[in-house]
């Protein structure tokens, strides 16, 4: 498949004779099959055989690799960044009243930015921490029951005021964020707990209801006493009359028995 | 550890994926990783009509993944004792079986 390249086509003799010859400027180049192709070039049979013979056969595993947790490297030193992140976590748990744990499956940053903006309007901030830092921190603190929540891609939503209803509406707008649980006022809540927390009325309303329920009897008595004393005396006389027929009927059989 | 061999998860033949788990249990790791892979934007972009629904419960129930395909078949995977890679391979093998034409065309 050799071909010759005409580098220069030069007449050897003059114009009259018209004889064209070949100067040593011609070059013979082997071409036809390129080394670098756009498609996957089929391997030469020898190369194929070599690869088949030298193929890697892994040693037989008794169980798959991810089935059991690894025993080694449980105690690794905390590097500076991890210490800093643990300090941040401690501050967060002290400062913020509501800490919600959400699993995010969103891949693009645009959705995340929109969600952050929506939550920022209500004073909720979004925090990212690696699980390797949060899990040991939580296990060593009083929040050890939150530790199993932190598996996979997780995000913390923290806020100083427990604005649960707004958080739920914003999360419902983005379908790929899954609410896992929350720690509100040092109380660990599941999803149902969070929903019922959001349905609770405000503190002042609850206190008002409690106070009114407790003072119902006393307020009734107070209102009775505030009425006209003639009304009160008539009520008391009626009460005595009600007692008297009972006393009258009870007194006579005892008298009969006595006699 | 548990990422699938293919870069993206193709959901063309899937109608709905319902994942339910209880996050306070310790056997939910594989289910949560499966959800993260399937619910990512890349996977969802392959089929916009496919719904990925996740339910979080607190009743110590087992983690379950319920996949409904376009032709009516259902695949139920109980993720308590499965690894993520096993679930992914089972799921993807069925997906490729259901959707051979587009796959073969893409490969060729």
Secondary-structure blueprint of this entry?
The complex is a heterodimer of chains A (259) and B (108).
Chain A lengths: L1 E4 L21 E4 L14 H9 L26 H16 L2 E7 L4 H12 L3 E4 L3 H9 L14 E6 L4 H10 L3 E8 L2 E3 L1 H9 L3 H12 L1 H10 L3 H30 L1
Antiparallel strand pairs in A: 1-2, 3-5, 3-6, 4-5, 6-7
Chain B lengths: L13 E8 L7 H10 L2 H6 L4 E6 L7 E6 L4 E5 L5 H15 L1 H8 L1
Helix pairs in contact in B: 1-3
Helix-strand topology string of chain A: EEHHEHEHEHEEHHHH
Integer average pLDDT of chain A:
82
- Kindly, what is the distance between the CA atoms of the first and last residues of chain B, rounded to a whole number of angstroms? 30 Å
Structural class estimated from helices and strands of chain A:
alpha+beta
Question: Percent of residues of chain B in beta strands?
Answer: 15-25%
For the CA atoms, what is the radius of gyration of chain B? 14 Å
The CATH H-level superfamily of the domain at 14-82 in chain B is Glutaredoxin
Report the strand count of chain B. 4
